[in-house]
Amino acid sequence: MFAIVETGGKQYKVSEGDIIFVEKLIVNEGDTYTFEKVLAVSTPDGFTAGSPTVPVTVTANVVKNGKGKKIHIIRYKAKKNEKKHMGHRQPYTKLQILSIAV
Predict the structure, then answer these.
(1) What is the domain count for the chain?
(2) What is the pTM of this model?
(3) Containing structural domain, residue 10
């Protein structure tokens, strides 16, 4: 049994027990989070796709909020003696899927 959920402008295929990294959500560690947009769900009875959503509840436990690995960006202009070094760490929320309630 799996579901396709949308959060942060991205879609994720999740099953019970999966751990996923999503764009940062405004929740605290240890809280539960319920996905608002469930686009499709697969059950033993068959596959159901929504238009645009399916009335299914997917709940997840917030494991942690953190930042990803640093990405180094170097901007360089030839013959101008201009160099700029920047870094970026994308914030994320780590979720563990608890249940998919049909």
Answers:
(1) 1
(2) 0.85
(3) 2-101
